[in-house]
Write a structure and sequence with these properties.
Elements: H1 29-36, E1 45-49, H2 56-67, E2 70-73, H3 82-87, E3 90-94, H4 102-114, E4 118-123, H5 135-142, E5 146-148, H6 154-167, H7 174-181, H8 188-205, H9 211-221
Parallel strand pairs: 1-4, 1-5, 2-3, 3-4
Helix pairs in contact: 1-2, 6-8, 8-9
Length: 224
């Protein structure tokens, strides 16, 4: 008789956006310094650029808590909400990409300048590559100061993976961490994905999270 597979429940786990839980390294030091020295910025509006999972949302949350502002995604930005957003004095708009309401974003930039409010815009790519159709908006965002987050070094990637396992209440051996960081894409998004996969498979197979399990899953991890 075939033994049924264990049902795996997608249980949530705590993710903290507190300042003390932000892990610093060479790849994000400039961005963190920008957040911490607010309001001493090179301009009242700045752009934070980095790949998926690089810490942009964490930094934006640290900043809005510090500045007493609001954080929202670009997809949810609406013209009617702009005055109320600017009234807080500090607004973080994340994930600027194709489909953003360009008139609302242009209105946000103009009103922020008029009322001397602060804006933190974030995206995966630099403003010159944003798919902006309004010429005035395109020229405005391309003139903004840019702070970039880059790929993490080994030390930071190791620290991030340890934290991700810890967030899921998983105690793992250092040999597993060393094995993984030399075999996965050098990004926080990849680290998050592999930790989630190992957690899920360990539960499904009723096994501990070990290097042996990681080795078995490496074809999946690498997209095989």
């Amino acid at each position: 008789m075939t033994t049924p597979e264990q049902l795996v429940l997608a249980l949530g786990h705590a993710v903290s956006f507190a300042r003390e839980d932000f892990l610093e390294g060479p790849s994000n030091a400039a961005a963190l310094a920008l957040i911490e020295r607010w309001p001493d910025w090179p301009g009242r509006s700045v752009v934070l650029v980095g790949p998926e999972g690089s810490g942009k949302s964490h930094l934006a949350e640290v900043w809005v808590r510090k500045a007493g502002g609001r954080r929202l995604t670009a997809a949810s930005l609406e013209q009617a909400a702009v005055p109320a957003l600017i009234a807080t004095g500090a607004v973080a708009v994340e994930d600027i990409a194709e489909g953003v309401d360009e008139i609302a974003l242009f209105h946000l930039l103009n009103l922020a300048r008029e009322q001397t409010a602060y804006l933190l815009l974030s995206a995966r790519d630099v403003p010159v590559r944003w798919p902006i159709r309004l010429p005035d908006l395109a020229s405005r965002v391309r003139a903004l100061p840019i702070i970039e987050l880059t790929a993490p070094d080994d030390a930071l990637l190791r620290a991030v993976m340890i934290k991700l396992f810890s967030d899921r209440q998983l105690a793992v051996d250092e040999s597993l961490i060393a094995y993984l960081i030399t075999r996965i894409e050098r990004s926080f998004a990849a680290a998050r994905a592999v930790v989630a996969l190992l957690d899920r498979e360990a539960l499904r197979q009723q096994r501990p999270v070990t290097r042996a399990l990681a080795a078995e899953l490496m074809p999946v991890i690498n997209g095989g």
